[in-house]
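Study this chain:
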Amino acid sequence: MEHLFKAWPDFTAAVKAASYILFLADYDGTLAQIVGRPEDAVLSTSVRQKLQALAAKRETSVGVISGRRLTELKSLVAIQGLYYSGNHGLEIEGPGLKYINTQAEAARSTMQELAAQLAEALENIDGVIIQEKGLSVSVHFRLAKPGKEDAVASAVKRITAPHVDKGEIRVYR
């Protein structure tokens, strides 16, 4: 796949010629800067204004995608009329649309249990953050001391393996 900026002339020509545009962007790392702690990632006033301007155009739909819980994402962005995709697409809401992945919904209690087990197993590794997000669990280790990655990965694998083996959950890194 060609990098967007190498194809910029063709891209801008296609956008100008399009009768309708769907604009989708990820929250963390695209709309908001990547930061050490997830709660510190905020949408700047400038980006918020640009999203509002795009959303106001009749020929454009705007969506924000995130690994965050849908309710958290909607609260952080807080612009009416957008499409929001939380938990990496496991839950989506927008004008005329409401979707929750049924398999993920069925695993909700398993996610709560796993979050508790992971928090207990990793409590002695400073900098590890466990986020239970209803339909998923995230283990953040960006703030952990170098060299702790293997211990985190080993604990995650040990705790999740029985559920992965049964096909109840999937683990992504």
